[in-house]
TrEMBL record:
GO terms for molecular function: UDP-glucose 4-epimerase activity. Keywords: Carbohydrate metabolism, Isomerase, NAD. Its EC number is 5.1.3.2. PANTHER family: UDP-GLUCOSE 4-EPIMERASE (PTHR43725). One of its GO terms (biological process) is galactose metabolic process. Its cofactor is NAD(+). It is an enzyme of class 5 (isomerase). CDD domains: UDP_G4E_1_SDR_e. This is UDP-glucose 4-epimerase.
């Protein structure tokens, strides 16, 4: 079976994708520098799939090491590139760190892929490229707006770099997957999201508040023009998201792609408000969540959810899991991580 490199494969979305790739019989090699993950994640992957992927601890910013890696693994057929820094707030404070880590690593990998007789490349992009879209749900044709942060800009520039490279590299086929809001954990709770420090995202903040690690959740604004006044996002279960990567990769490896650079939205198509997510947590956990409404947070988009038609029709992929499923698994995971289950 084809050998696939998964960069950032010990991270949140990467680890769930490695599981799905191994379940489909792919040989997986992971590169990760452990800057936002732990080697213990390998045990979780092994516990679920019965197979330990090859792991190379490597910082993709080190160009020579990347070259050596590809010289050693010259039979790689595809790359799923998750490795990146992802904290929006930190990117505003440390833009160069983000441009270096998210852009140079991409360039070094593409340079190596150009040398291969043929290669498929999947890029982790984000719905952040759309900013506050003029129309909802958001289709892939919605204009890319001026980035709101250096992090968001790295995703826009990343897409442009890949598109430009594909235009002049017939042996390279690529898909940029624009994720909406990935949440949840594997149902086995062997793997899940492991935020370092104070979580930047809503769901880990909710589960950490539920378990008592945080005192209360601040809900930023309840006076937005939405049904309950809180912001709306499209929360997609990480296992559904992981499965989409395997399908997108298969599309490239089986030459089913329509052009050698494509983009797809990955979301559920359904928007949920912050208060709906809180309610879902309370329902599946049986716990009352301590939260308070505070003022709006600067830079927050009011509402974003995906038009999933292109992914449904072209990839033949649909989400199967609900917000409640995601909250249930996220809560089970939180309890396991804190040793309460
Ligand atoms: N989680 C989200 O909400 C979300 C939304 C949209 C897009 N994305 C993108 O999806 C990808 C994966 O996100 P995630 O949530 O799994 O993040 P994560 O931080 O859990 O995973 C990223 C992994 O990459 C590794 N890494 C970072 N820099 C590296 C380097 N220079 N060399 C080698 N390894 C490196 C980290 O150690 C980590 O294990 C990222 O590109 C992110 O920008 C995430």
């Amino acid at each position: 079976m084809d050998k696939i490199l998964v960069t950032g494969g010990l991270g949140f979305i990467g680890s769930h994708t490695v599981v799905e790739l191994q379940n489909e019989g792919y040989d997986v090699v992971i590169i990760d520098d452990l800057s936002n993950s732990s080697e213990k994640v390998l045990d979780g992957i092994t516990a679920i799939t019965g197979k330990t992927p090859i792991f190379e601890k490597l910082d993709l910013k080190e160009k020579d090491k990347v070259e050596q890696f590809f010289a050693k693994h010259n039979d790689i057929k595809g790359v799923i590139h998750f490795a990146a820094s992802k904290a929006v707030g930190e990117s505003v404070k440390e833009p160069l760190l983000y441009y270096e880590n998210n852009i140079s690593t991409l360039v070094y990998i593409l340079k190596e892929l150009k040398k291969l007789p043929s290669a498929g490349f999947i890029f982790s992009s984000s719905c952040t490229v759309y900013g506050q879209a003029d129309e909802l749900p958001i289709t892939e044709n919605a204009p890319v707006k001026l980035a709101e942060s250096p992090y968001g800009n790295t995703k826009q520039i990343g897409e442009e770099i890949i598109s430009d490279t594909c235009k002049v590299t017939p042996n390279l086929k690529a898909i940029a997957l624009r994720y909406f809001n990935p949440v949840g954990a594997h149902e086995s709770v062997e793997i899940g999201e492991l935020p370092i420090g104070v979580p930047q995202n809503l769901v880990p903040f909710i589960t950490q508040t539920g378990i008592g690690l945080r005192q209360e959740l601040s809900v930023f604004g309840d006076d937005y023009p939405t049904p309950d006044g809180t912001c709306i996002r499209d929360y997609i279960h990480v296992v559904d998201l992981a499965k989409a990567h395997v399908i997108a990769l298969g599309r490239l490896l089986q030459n089913k792609n329509k052009s050698n650079y494509e983009t797809f939205n990955l979301g559920t198509g359904k928007g949920s408000s912050v208060l709906e997510v809180v309610k879902s947590f309370e329902k599946v956990s049986g716990k009352k969540l301590n939260y308070k409404i505070v003022g709006r947070r600067e830079g927050d988009i009011i509402s974003a959810y995906a038009d999933t038609e292109k992914a449904n029709k072209e990839l033949g992929w649909k989400t199967k899991l609900s917000l409640d499923d995601a909250m249930r698994s996220a809560w089970k995971w939180e309890q396991k991580v804190r040793g309460e289950n």
